Amino acid sequence: MERVAERLASDDPAERRAAVVLCAMRDVPGAREMILGAVRDPDPGVRQGAAWALGQRPKTEDTSKLLALLDDPSFEVRSTAGWSLVALGPAVLESVGSVWHDGSGTEAREMALLVLRRITDALGGLPAEGSDVGALSETARALIREVSPMGRWNQPTLVGAIRGIAHDMNNNLLTFRTCVPYFRELIAPTHTGILRALDSMELADRAMERHIRRLIQSLGPFIDGSSRDSRQAAQWVAGFLHDFNNAMLSARICVDWLRDESRADGPEAAQEIDAISHAIDTLEALTRELRMHAFGRNDRVGLHPTTTPLKAFAERIRRRLRTLVLARPIEATVTLDPSAPEDFTMDVMLCERIMDNLLTNAAKYTDRGRVEVVIAGVGEELRVTVSDTGRGIESGSLRGVFTPGGSDPETRVGEGYGVGLSVVVDLLDLLGGHLDVSSEVSVGTAFSVTLPSWTVGAHSGRVGSTVPARQDVIDRVVRLRSA
Hints:
Elements: H1 2-8, H2 13-25, H3 31-38, H4 44-56, H5 63-69, H6 75-88, H7 93-102, H8 106-123, H9 138-146, H10 159-186, H11 192-223, H12 230-261, H13 267-295, E1 306-309, H14 310-324, E2 330-336, E3 343-346, H15 348-364, E4 369-378, E5 381-388, H16 420-431, E6 434-440, E7 444-451, H17 470-477, E8 478-480
Parallel strand pairs: 2-4, 6-8
Antiparallel strand pairs: 1-3, 4-5, 5-7, 6-7
Helix pairs in contact: 1-2, 2-3, 2-4, 2-12, 3-4, 4-6, 5-6, 6-8, 6-12, 7-8, 10-11, 10-13, 11-12, 12-13, 14-15, 15-16, 16-17
């Protein structure tokens, strides 16, 4: 008890969030009071943890606290509170309906509608009179009838960008599929609590993968032009974000739990936890970007340059590549060339998305041999080259792989969507960079990313409401080289 209370009083939000999780998962005296206190924490991560904890032992007397969180500034907090309300079931229909009809904030009303839809889904629609759940008030039954698609698709031209974000989310789930099984081997079978947490993480991974696949499939009619129903599109994206956030939070809580419980299991276990945690950080950033694209208050893609130590950037790439080739006959190396500066100003999130797509492709299409990354300075620019000894690409097909879905479906590995390299090109166009490509079938492929020097605040990127022609973007960014 004393230890939990001490952690709740910590200045570190991660410690406070971990304490809230402990309150929900263990029989801690005074747990409910501590969780309710955390609802008012200044840190959104702690408030999200409190909203999650209230849903683990749902009580109708907590309804008002959860309803108040539907108006929280953080989407993650609103979504998690929404899921805890869903756990309370039909008993909260009228209360949630009041927020939907009369709430003061647009975001609270939108989340209330999602809660109503999820409760209705769980009921299988309007229950028949006389059924186990048929004894609903007429107000509650009217709400179920009334639930309808929400919002509007503010930027239908950005469907391709949203599809690319979903693709990048799926790439990050590869970390779960490689690190979690490996982590199991590091842990003694007597660690039953840790093994249960790993089971939960694998369930969360499968749920996130399922939600991404559903989003990709639902966007199909908008990509091929057969549908322009903006309300339906908005409903799909909003529902995806709400559902995905719940699975992502489960994974985050499991990581926090693993970090706490496996402190004595050595540096290798800590590295695996760090890799999973970084993947979740990236997923959270991608959900924020997806919300901005689909329901953003403006049509500009924000750029956030920071001066980054390249040694740390190289180490993140090394860890990611190591995860992708784990237990496979592939040699993976990441070299920071002496020509590279100590620091470089870049948008780290976008650059890591570029690297993640290139690394994933290299690992995916290399059965054995090597994947090599070299980070070098070229004048005022930074050049990152990813080369592999994989299958290679036919010269006649090379330019087509930069168009969404342009690669041959028969040559894709796994359940790919053929959009990874188009994402790389779009992001480099935004950053004012270039991509040099050379490939030879059965020999391998090399991608060299060139990023311009970037004084903080001086680079606007190619942003705006006009979507350039696809071929113009490819011509501007891609430079084909002979192998």
